[in-house]
Design brief:
Layout lengths: L6 H29 L9 H29 L11 H16 L10 H5 L1 H22 L5 H24 L2 H6 L7 H4 L14 H5 L14 H15 L10 H12 L3 H20 L2 H4 L2 H24 L8 H25 L3 H7 L14 H9 L5 E6 L3 E6 L11 E4 L2 H5 L12 H48 L3 H14 L1 H16 L2 H11 L2 E4 L2 H13 L12 H4 L15 H4 L7 H18 L8 H19 L11 H18 L8 H10 L6 H5 L7 H19 L6 H18 L3 H6 L7 H11 L18
Antiparallel strand pairs: 1-2, 3-4
Helix pairs in contact: 1-2, 1-15, 2-3, 2-5, 3-5, 3-6, 3-15, 5-6, 6-14, 10-12, 10-16, 12-23, 14-15, 19-20, 26-27, 26-29, 26-31, 26-32, 27-32, 32-34
């Protein structure tokens, strides 16, 4: 009989399968503990892949090895096996229960894991039974005291994880904000005001924030305390709950008196609390139950190690490799517990719990407050002055990576640059030219080979076509009635069709495997780049938000697009004839309007030559335009409420752009400015929308018409007191940004917190706290579907 697996490989597997997977399980726990805190600071896809695999394999490896240990306990001893060796392996079963409890830094990889807390609770019971079965098989066992202590520690850690998942579930978030019914008050409560009673339990529990006496002078500790207060009282924003007019008014009054940077710092810390509440054990460990269970678990682990080390005879009873593995499990397990503790102690949540908001001016606060202020000062926002945009100095966010609370950057995608395959040009380069030069030097051999191969393939294709045509002409001239020449022509045709056959086969394979979208996605990802958030951009956004508080609701116009959910009536254009631009806003869907204004903004941006006195509105319009395009194309889940058929419009517009570039022979120039000039140079007498109808969703030349209108406004504003063209464009982008933030998907919004965060989430939370978001409207038509 032929053995598929050689005998020596089977012997190695039988001897080392349990040992190897136990070490794998411990390694996965180490990876999760050390790397999980980084995912709120970056959207790096490689890090996300490593954490995803580790998170899934951690549960699989622990479950699998418990089954192997149980199977091993039932085997008969081999002649060379030590008599007590199986009893030592039975000791590893509670260690695996300890691993299933998961690290403190990550309980859930995604929000869906929190909804499965019932499954984890059932898993706790089943794993405890499996571990007990393994131990019973090993009885009588001299290590039973150690095993019992480890069972206690493992069960408590698994219980912590289950409780953390339950507390982070959407039902718990929603239910925790409901007021306990009061029989005296319900009789006198007017009908239709039920929504004013929501979310008041924690509102009274955590007290009221201080009056903002000196805006601009908040200490780091006060920033933290206010953020913690807002998190506890408004955390049901996560599930789109609505609030009372009292809460809404107090939040609005507080935030409108903040400086721009103070608002950013509070929002940053508050979103950090939301992340920790959704994805870590922090909310459990900072309760008396969590402190008790962790103390017992750590004490049991230390006691078990002490008994094993000092009172167990190991030299002749156990295999040497098994003793080493057991020591590794103990020492690394204890070390990881202390590392987790060291990560939790300096966290914002810990500082918030041990400090308090001083509501009485006579109360000077806790004695530990000065130390907390100093420690929190290390985590403050760091701004770096940088010369960019034609010599203008900006302050860009440059907080050191290990103390960041979020990525601190925004991602940009430009349609025209992607359509002509142009190289990415950054507006702000925090890393500096020297570092980029070093990386280019390192990667030069690889990029050179890639570029040379692309050029060579292109030349070979041209030579192939030219040679094919030449051979056809030659054979056609002397073929005449010669039958041999006809066969030669067939052979030549076949030979020159080989490259096209390979192209056809490759296309067929990609279509058959269904990976066309994947290849397109990879191409899109390569065209995305990050820019640091600038202080000026945040000030521009937050000032615009606060200015909306002064606008009477009655001035908001109702439009056709407003009925579709795109509330374009909030835009106030200081122009002689605003209707010239409103046709590109009021009469189109959100996704169409976004693409129209994105392409038009780029066309106008490329038409101007950068000057030393760079127009801030021009720069803001460019950044927001590319950012919103990135959200529409690369974040479909986040924008699902407003994206519409954005992907279809993008595809059709890209196809039309490709045809246009080929017609003008500029498809290989990789020049955004040249492509923009060519698009603007096209003369169209009839509006593109009237020509195409519904046959194509492309907006390329409709955006060109919008750019022409914007250029007319630019010329008119020079001779009048009207707003500049870029001021008008920036207002439109503000409206697009605010609408997208108010209507972004709740699940994807919270999911982004574990991927480095998004500027859109900051805008959403700022809208909510200023009472401008729909989730704070007492006239809402009930609660939205939530996570």
């Amino acid at each position: 009989m032929v053995q598929v697996i050689p005998a020596h490989i089977k012997n190695v597997w039988d001897e080392w399968n349990i040992r190897g997977i136990v070490i794998l399980s411990l390694s996965l726990q180490t990876i999760l503990i050390l790397l999980a805190p980084l995912r709120k600071r970056t959207s790096n896809r490689f890090l996300a892949l490593v954490l995803w695999l580790s998170y899934l394999l951690a549960d699989w490896s622990a479950n699998f090895v418990i089954g192997l240990i149980a199977k091993n306990q039932g085997k008969e001893l081999k002649p060379d096996d030590l008599p007590q060796d199986k009893k030592l392996m039975a000791l590893w079963a509670p260690f695996l229960l300890l691993h299933l409890g998961g690290p403190d830094t990550i309980t859930a990889y995604s929000l869906e894991d929190n909804a499965l807390w019932h499954r984890h609770f059932l898993g706790l019971a089943l794993q405890a039974i499996s571990g007990a079965y393994v131990v019973i098989q090993s009885l009588p066992n001299s290590l039973w005291v150690i095993i019992l202590l480890l069972f206690i520690a493992g069960t408590l850690k698994y219980l912590e994880r289950t409780i953390a998942l339950y507390l982070a579930s959407s039902d718990k978030f929603r239910g925790s904000m409901l007021e306990v019914p009061d029989s005296d008050s319900t009789e006198t409560r007017p009908s239709g005001k039920e929504d004013d009673s929501m979310a008041t339990e924690n509102y009274t529990q955590y007290g009221r924030p201080l009056r903002l006496e000196n805006p601009g002078n908040l200490t780091h500790l006060e920033i933290l305390q206010f953020a913690f207060w807002f998190f506890n009282n408004f955390k049901s924003l996560v599930v789109n709950n609505i609030f009372s007019s009292e809460q809404r008014g107090e939040s609005r009054e507080f935030f409108k008196n903040l400086t721009n940077e103070e608002a950013l710092r509070i929002l940053e810390v508050e979103l950090g609390f939301i992340y920790e509440g959704l994805y870590t054990k922090v909310s459990v460990l900072h309760t008396w139950v969590g402190a008790l269970t962790r103390t017992i678990a750590l004490g049991s682990l230390l006691s078990a190690f002490g008994i094993f080390h000092y009172r167990t005879k190991k030299s002749h009873e156990f295999h040497g490799a098994d003793i080493v593995i057991t020591y590794i499990l103990f020492l690394v397990g204890i070390a990881l517990d202390f590392v987790s503790l060291l990560m939790i102690l300096p966290s914002d949540w810990t500082f918030a719990v041990i400090s308090r908001i001083n509501e009485d001016e006579v109360d000077s606060g806790s004695w530990i407050d000065p130390a907390l202020k100093w420690l929190l000062g290390l985590k403050k926002l760091h701004w770096k002055k940088q010369i960019c945009c034609g010599g203008v100095e900006h302050e860009v966010l440059n907080t050191p990576f290990l103390i960041q609370r979020w990525a601190g950057s925004i991602k940009l995608f430009n349609f025209i640059a992607y359509s002509v395959k142009a190289d990415i040009k950054r507006m702000h380069d925090v890393k500096g030219r020297r570092r980029r030069l070093v990386w280019k030097t390192i990667l030069y051999p690889f990029t050179s080979v890639s570029n040379i191969s692309k050029k060579l393939c292109k030349k070979i294709a041209i030579w192939n076509d030219d040679l094919h045509q030449y051979m056809k002409d030659v054979t056609g001239q002397w073929s005449g009635d010669n039958p041999v020449a006809h066969y030669l022509i067939i052979i030549v045709e076949f030979w020159f069709m080989i490259p096209h056959c390979f192209t056809f086969i490759g296309s067929y394979i990609t279509n058959f495997l269904g990976i066309d979208d994947l290849l397109d996605e990879i191409s899109l990802i390569r065209s995305v780049h990050s820019e640091p958030l600038t202080k000026e951009l945040w000030e521009f956004i937050f000032d615009e938000l606060k200015s909306r508080l002064q606008r009477p609701r009655k001035e908001r116009r109702k439009t056709k697009a407003g009925k579709k959910g795109w509330d374009s009536g909030n835009i106030e254009l200081d122009m002689a004839d605003p209707e010239r631009l409103m046709r590109y806003i009021a009469d189109v869907d959100f996704d169409r309007s976004l693409m129209l204004w994105h392409i038009a903004t780029e066309l106008c941006y490329q038409e101007e030559v950068p000057i030393s006195s760079c127009d801030k509105d021009r720069e803001f319009s460019k950044i927001l335009s590319d950012y919103m395009m990135y959200l529409l194309i690369m974040q479909p889940k986040l924008m699902s409420e407003v994206a519409g058929i954005g992907k279809i419009r993008f595809r059709d517009t890209l196809a039309e752009a490709g045809k246009f570039y080929k017609r003008w022979h500029i498809e290989n120039l990789r020049d955004v400015r040249r492509a923009s000039h060519k698009i603007l140079s096209v003369e169209i007498e009839i509006h593109p929308r009237d020509v195409k109808g519904n046959k194509s969703k492309s907006v390329l030349f409709e955006a060109r018409a919008l750019a022409k209108e914007l250029n007319k406004i630019k010329k008119q504003s020079v001779d009048s007191d009207e707003e500049s063209m870029w001021k008008v464009v920036s207002k439109v982008w503000m409206e697009l940004l605010f609408h997208a933030a108010s209507n972004c998907d709740a699940t994807a919004r919270m999911d982004q917190l574990s991927k480095g965060g998004e500027l859109l989430i900051f805008v959403w939370l700022a809208l909510a706290h200023l009472g401008l978001g729909s989730q704070l409207s007492s006239s809402a038509n009930g609660l939205s579907e939530t996570i």
